[in-house]
Design a protein that fits this description.
Distance between the termini: 102 Å
Order of helices and strands: HHHHHHHHHHHHH
Radius of gyration: 48 Å
Strand content: under 5%
Largest sheet: none
């Protein structure tokens, strides 16, 4: 009986990194009644915050109290760390990181939906948050001029585009889109909790650094959550855009392959004549006698007398030794003479 090899956790991780052979069937979020209720409650909260700031209510007074408390002076030891932590809410770095992850998802699952949904969310974020920022023209804490004022309608002054907080709204959308596009309920729960913690911490970090009022952060949270809750309404246009892009890709690839096949020269077939037919068609050659074709060689010179073969010849050895004579060297075959003994 054959048994399947047991995969380790590392093997399962590497298996998930490979590209899936076919496009999986993923569940697309729908605009359910529960989501519609949450969208309506978040929109009401959004409008309440705007109204509370415009009418200079208790929320504006609380903004001033938090600003005058100066958290960056109360806890200066965490200032350096929070300067880097707030980058998790900047649109440029976070968009690059999340787009890289979603691009890999697109390649692995043979779909463009993750990147298209992320692009649609960022487009909505820039349009909605940017319109409110420049429409209300509220100055930040560093540019405030009158204590207790809501600092609204300062359109032509520096730092008058901080309401709502772009860092907070961007953190909600950028990290929340990972939970929105999750492929399992468990991953969606974990990613939702992670995005909530990141967006809350980034928003409170801007209050600590003194770059935003607390009401800016509250409105930023609501603005980002509205975009995530309303994304299912954009799923049909996203599906149509994906189908159009994939069809355009197929047509471009087909056109490129057709152009390459037309540009490649096709070899012209050459007619090969059989050897027998070639000999029949060739003109007859003139026969030349062999004696006339080759000139006779001159006979080699041989010395007079009888000649023997090389193997019967006697080798000639020179007489005597080839070594030069020496007075002290005796001739080969003779007895050497005794040398006289000399005393020293």
């Amino acid at each position: 009986m054959r048994t399947e090899p047991k995969l380790t956790r590392l093997d399962r991780i590497f298996a998930r990194l490979d590209r899936e052979p076919e496009r999986p069937v993923l569940e697309v979020p729908r605009m359910t009644r529960h989501r519609v209720v949450l969208f309506g409650a978040t929109l009401a909260f959004y409008l309440t915050i705007v109204l509370a700031v415009v009418t200079t209510s208790w929320l504006v007074r609380f903004d001033w109290q938090a600003m005058l408390f100066r958290p960056y002076q109360q806890w200066p030891e965490i200032h350096a760390f929070l300067d880097y932590w707030v980058v998790l809410g900047q649109r440029g770095p976070t968009a690059v990181m999340v787009a890289a992850w979603l691009g890999w998802r697109c390649w692995r699952q043979h779909t463009l939906r993750p990147l298209l949904a992320f692009g649609a969310a960022l487009l909505l974020l820039n349009v909605s948050v940017g319109a409110v920022k420049y429409g209300l023209g509220r100055s930040g804490p560093h540019y405030a001029t009158e204590v207790g004022s809501n600092e609204m309608w300062h359109w032509f002054q520096p730092g008058s585009d901080i309401f709502p907080s772009g860092h907070t709204a961007n953190a909600v959308v950028t990290w929340g889109i990972l939970a929105y596009l999750a492929t399992s309920p468990r991953a969606r729960r974990w990613l939702s909790a992670l995005s909530a913690v990141l967006s809350l911490s980034v928003g409170l970090t801007t209050v600590y650094l003194g770059t935003h009022w607390l009401s800016d952060v509250l409105l930023g949270w609501a603005a980002g959550l509205l975009i995530l809750l309303g994304l299912p309404w954009l799923e049909p246009p996203i599906a149509r855009a994906e189908a159009w892009l994939l069809d355009l890709r197929d047509r471009l690839l087909a056109g490129a392959s057709r152009t390459a096949s037309q540009a490649t020269p096709v070899p012209v077939p050459v007619a090969v004549t059989p050897l027998a037919a070639a000999e029949e068609e060739a003109p007859p050659r003139e026969t030349v006698p062999q004696s006339a074709a080759r000139a006779p060689r001159a006979p080699a010179y041989l010395a007079p007398g009888p000649h023997t073969t090389r193997s019967e010849r006697t080798p000639v050895t020179p007489a005597g030794s080839r070594r030069p004579p020496h007075p002290d060297r005796a001739t080969r075959g003779s007895t050497p003479a005794a040398r006289p003994l000399t005393g020293g």
